[in-house]
Amino acid sequence: MSGQEPRDGYRENERRNEQGRTRNRGQGGPRKYSASAPGQRKRAADPARLVAFRTLREVSGSDAYANLVLPKMIREYQLDRRDAGFATELAYGALRGQGFYDAILATLVDRDLSELDPAILDALRLGAHQLLAMRVPKHAALDETVSLARAQIGAGPSGLINAVLRRVSGQEADQWTEQLGSAASSESERLSIEHSHPDWIVRALRGALITHGRDASELEALLEADNLAPLVNLVSLPGLGDLAGALESGAEPGTLLSDSATYKHGDVARVPGVKEGTVRVQDAGSQVMARALANIELPEAGEDRYWLDMCAGPGGKAALLGAIAVQRDARLTANEPTEHRARLVENSLDAVPHDYWMVTTEDGRSFAGEDFAGDYDRIMVDAPCSGLGALRRRPESRWRKAPRDIPELTSLQGELLDAAFNAVRVGGVIGFVTCSPHQAETRLVVEDFLKRHENAALLDTSAAVSSVMYENAPPAGHDLGDGTTAQLWPHVHGTDAMFMAILTKKA
């Protein structure tokens, strides 16, 4: 470079020290880097995003449930209220929107998404959700997600994630929706992508609306409701607790039924009565079903002292039924065949005086035996089901279900109903409940049951359910069904999509 002026106006001898090494080009002070300089890249993951990422890894890698994993992660990382809220929205939002985000990513990655490392795919989903559905600045969503990937997956994959997410950020969510929707081959596929539900569930929910007497035009509103974060619903156990402390802590009175409230102000464990078990977290739909069974008048006179919750785990309905049983001087048997879930039932019932309940671990179908014939006055059969009515609470479950699961479930539901019919006395009642509106798990199960048992009758369930929900007639549009069975909906009642049929045994 002799005879030539160095670049940037520096002389060569001004840039080298005695050992001949080049000095900092800056005019003293800390050395400056560009935003993309390797030495300046953030290598530690933001704790809230790390919690969300680890939750997704447990869900996709170990088939865990987010509602069980996430609270543990939040406690492990000691997130404050703000960060816990961010991690919750990020994890649940990425899970709810997985179908939509995967459809976008499939257009930007040069291989099938199934060929990507699952950890990379989870990081991409988290980044996409921040970019398209959260109020996170794009540069922060990109930088933090890439830093997370670098720390948790590696430098190589972080480059791919950076490149893909930059392309995701090139359009807003509505632009992606329009692009993907225009390429859909059917209306159900369009709704499947836009509202992030598997196509078969979209079609099943459309059929369910029609089956239960609603208009198919409500489908989009139902899908939208499935993607809203549900409120925390509280219930006080009758005669054992009250909601005064919860209301003083910021809860608001429930609009669907009495002795209920909604809460959205942080850690619900801090609400008075929750730790003691006299105030409980329970979806309003579940509260309605338990109260409807307990309140309906028995068709024939006789004792009303022996109640059975045949499939009691994890114990929410059992606790409410148990508290009401105390007021009626009745006795509740809470049956749960799975040992660890039976322990959850015992914990749920612990606040109820112990003389009024017992927990058993029978297979529910064993109540078909002669030893149980006619033993009970009221029986709750909250049968195992597909859970299509609770997709907003367990967003990952929509990606785990398949149409082939339904026949096995409906067969079990029928067997449990048959067992309950043996165990109920003449003039007693059975409440058949599923957290699914699917016609095969609701109306068809009941119709098949009635064909098998000539001395069974279906009671006016919608009237029984309405009586615990509304002081007067239901508001316009809040109809529960055709006057016999009852079906709740997220987009109408703000509950899980729970179904109920109350049946009786005639002489």
UniProtKB/TrEMBL annotation:
The keyword GTP-binding does not apply. Keywords: Methyltransferase, RNA-binding, S-adenosyl-L-methionine, Transferase. GO terms for biological process: methylation. The lineage of its organism: Bacteria, Bacillati, Actinomycetota, Actinomycetes, Micrococcales. Residues 207-506 form the SAM-dependent MTase RsmB/NOP-type domain. S-adenosyl-L-methionine binds at C311, A312, G313, P314, G315, G316, K317, E336, D363, D382. InterPro entries: MeTrfase_RsmB-F_NOP2_cat, MeTrfase_RsmB-F_NOP2_dom, NusB-like_sf, NusB_RsmB_TIM44, RCMT, SAM-dependent_MTases_sf. This is RNA methyltransferase. Residues 1-21 have a biased composition (Basic and acidic residues). Residues 1-46 are annotated as: Disordered. Belongs to the class I-like SAM-binding methyltransferase superfamily. RsmB/NOP family. GO terms for molecular function: methyltransferase activity. The active site is at C435 (nucleophile). It is an enzyme of class 2 (transferase). Its EC number is 2.1.1.-. PANTHER family: NOP2 YEAST -RELATED NOL1/NOP2/FMU SUN DOMAIN-CONTAINING (PTHR22807), RIBOSOMAL RNA SMALL SUBUNIT METHYLTRANSFERASE B-RELATED (PTHR22807:SF53).
